[in-house]
Model the fold of this input.
Amino acid sequence: MKSITKIMAASLIGSTFLVAPVVAANVPAGVELAADQTFTYRVLDEHSSVDPQIVEDVSGSELVRDLFEGLLNQDADGVLIPGVAESWEASNGNLTYTFKLRSDAKWSNGDPVTAGDFVYSWQRLADPKTASPYAWFMEIMSLENASEIVAGEKEPSELGVSAPDDHTLVVNLTAPLPYFAAMTTHASTFPSPQKVVEEFGTDWTKPENIVSNGAYVLTEHVPSERSVRERNPNYWNDSETVIDKVVALVINDENIALTRYLAGELDRTEVPAGQYPDLKKKYPDQALSFPKLCSYYYSFNVSDSGPEAFKDVRVRQALSYALDRSVVTEQVLKGGQFPAFTFTPGATANFTVPDVAFAKMSQAERDAKAKELMEAAGYNADNPLSFELLYNTSEAHKKVATVAAQMWKQKLGAEVTLANQEWKVFLEVRGKQDFDLARGGWCGDYNEASTFLDLLTTPSGYNDGKYSNAEVDKLMTDAKTASDPSDNYTRVEEILANEMPLIPVYHYTGVYMMGADIIGSWPVKNVEQNWYSRDLYKVK
Amino acid sequence: MFIFILKRIGIAIPTLLVLIVFSFVIMKSAPGGPFTSERPLPAQVLLNLEIKYGLDKPYHEQLINYVVDIVTKFDFGPSFRYKDRSVNDIIAQGFPITLTYGIWSFVLAVSVGVSLGIVAAIKHNSWIDYTAVGFSISAQVLPNFVMAPILVIIFTLTLGWLPGGGWNGGQWQYLVMPVIALSTSYMASIARITRSSMLEVLNSNFIRTAKAKGLSNTQIIFKHALKPALLPVITYLGPAFVGMITGSVVIDMYFSTGGIGQMFVSSALNRDYSVIMGITILMGFLTIMFNLVVDILYAWIDPKIRY
Amino acid sequence: MVFKSKKIAKMADNMAAQGMGKSHSLWSDARRRFFKNKAAVVSLIILSLIIIFAFAAPYFTPWNNEEIDWAILGSVAQDGKPSFTTKHYFGADPLGRDLFARVAQGSQISLMVGIIGAGIAVIVGTLYGAIAGYFGGRLDNIMMRLVDILMSIPYMFVLILLLVVFGRSIEMLFVGLGLISWLDMSRIVRGQTMVLRNKEFIEAAIAGGLNRFTIITRHIIPNLLGIVIVYASLLVPLMILTESFISFLGLGVQEPNTSWGALISEGAGQVLYGTLWQLGFPLFFFVTALFSFFFIGDGLRDALDPKDR
Done:
């Protein structure tokens, strides 16, 4: 786990003493705000929890970022800005971090937020008794004794974090992490109120019990239906907050969600695959598409349990070449997605998409080459290639898989069987290499190419196709210490284009319908999409 | 009668046990567990989670602990997915929602269905009869999953009268479409059954005698015909009830009402063992209880039945 | 001894044959009554047309159910309308596949589910009910308590669980549907069997020393045929409805195959985008077929129900 996040947020390094300006809702001068500042958005699924140390899903983290505030926040561009900590400083060769906490930070019950709250929460995160699914986050943060505490070998009180006084937090690390400060924007490092947690136990997150230190407090929660958070008057920067009330409605089906958006019940919803152009034409001021740090790909099983055919690089190349990505992005999904010829998305910071050879060919050339390769590999009408394409159940994945299967069938005569499985089954099957070709989607944990390319190294726990190449491993290891690793990344992408252990299909975009009154304040440039309701505002 | 009820309750207990064991076995034999995730958890973290939820114990021990907790403490355990909530919390919050629109649907289906059937039978072969028959036949082939999208097209997209989903504390605007979608086809069936059984009764000898004696129509219908005519309707209430419980899955998914139907499907997908078991047991319990009530009702109306 | 028992068996056979003879006239009576029922006859014709469509339609279109029409893929809402020029008679689905071919193929699956599902229910339910009813006593008690228990299980929830857990497949669907649908059947059959059991020809067969299994299969079950047919005709639409429900939840057949429920579900999701044909055609077939089944079922009941004679 450590290796994966080594270079976490390399672009967000904050190692010297920093004092950045506080930014809340950054309302441009001359903009008239609407009278009703309620933001209602759709979530796909019920959130897992609003307990900062327990939460594990995206929609839950969105809530936690509003209800609680950690040491640091991100602004609309993803740059680090102060949160509860006013300033921070690294010393001892990046092995010690000292955070100065603001004195006016308060919990929603009026109690001051102290450094002790952070000590308590971080110990709670690592404590095996809490059994947090994110306990490993303390380990990748390299806090002293974190691994031992998670393993139950040491007491939580021995964690490398301490509070010399109420407004100073000192953290001791086992490895010099230049980007440590950036990791404190993660929801699992946010403080939880010790008194309340101990008084109510697991019930402390219920609206009637919860005490939080963020810009909002949880006022209503109907599981699987809605959760409502309202402005916290005790929040230190409440005066700069504009949105009064945020409502998250759980709507499983995206078409139904769009119906309800169009009926005026929502301010934000996802655009179903294929509908963006029509919606953009009809509602030019409400449809929004922006790049995200995610890749969609098909992964070959090249392990021993995989099909013999996929061990032949020519077959892998042929299938990749014959997949017309522009059909997928322009005719099926139509949400501004980018056809992918490399694994790493072009939107990644400090990454230039390398000119891999097959990206420059026309589709007709690629098709011709694919046929040639298949012939050479010995597959033809009498001996057709046949395999199963596995994807997890979803309308959009089904569409892409159907189109891909038809392309391979018509162009290469391959017999493709489609198989879909529920998410949990799919993960288990894929993780056990019990597949031929499987769909994969990967979103960057941080804004740097290694979050993608590490996936294809031999030791990676997420390398489900079991691709292994010594040169790739070496290049990626070297990249962690290189001052400018971009050449390594280019080289790895070139190797991948040659050996084709996976078929990059497209790079994601965030495609939303968003109310014309709020669309202007949405942080589209934050590629990780860490958004805070307190930064939003509705105009008249 | 009392012994009959006791006997039925006696059957209910093994039934629930069979249900618990059956669902438990299905869940455990499924690939993927509650903590399977895209980014596999480190072994130590996984182990801590399993210890906390008792999943490190052998299966039979887990099953016994589960049953014992239910019997002694009425505790269905914590949810694996929603870690700060217990199954009791989840059911306590979702079930009243399902129950609210379920009861409305049931009452609507029975009251409108029965009245429609009676009126149609009395005015046999009149335009009212034809309308009622036409309605009940067409509504029968429009199950809830067909009704739901049609209602949304009409009332939300075209007319803009009703919100397209949600619950919002159960305000009437949010209730209308779920109730219509859930009740229509049962209303139709009940109307059909009532009509034909009412016709049969009205043509029977004892009613003819009553007529010959010069009793008024109202008297005949309400004092003599109604009770026997309702017998087949009562037998249908059991299946209708079960059908509506099942239908709540579609209603919850389509209208995002937050009831337990939706919770059931998403828990099954998330392998949230305890929530699935809790909801399955609740549904089984309701089915058993309702069938018991129907049987008692039946015995009460039909004096011929002896237990 | 042997001779004697043979003789009696023969007698029993004759009596049974007499019963059958009677039932021959019963059958022709029933047929006559059924064909007098206009709604039932019209429904039978419509249903036959749907079945013919399901199996013959693939020969009348250049498209099959999984082929994508690349020319219209990106613009189904505009170019995928039902049209004779593109040869998409029913239009195209959201992925540019021919809806005519897909509706035909979906009809095959849905009808098959209905008929096979009802078939399983009939076979299992009849045998189970006949055995329980024939033997009576403790065996009957145990078998019927088991039915009571199974009936109290919220089967749709269990079915959803099965499909989620073991993956969706048409076989699993059949297993699930079959498991739950025979319960009612077995109760009805048991009741009938208990009545039949006291009839003279059965007593004669018993006296003739015929083995019990032969009596059940040769004498009891043929005489249950009327009620079984009526009930089965009502089960078929019920099975189709259940399959559609499951498909609507996204737990039905695997791509590229489809069914009425899956098509309706997909079409219903698209109503917002003006492609109403994607809902209209499958819904039309679904509704028409269910109508037909209901009327045919009614017709059969009227024809076979002795009460109405």
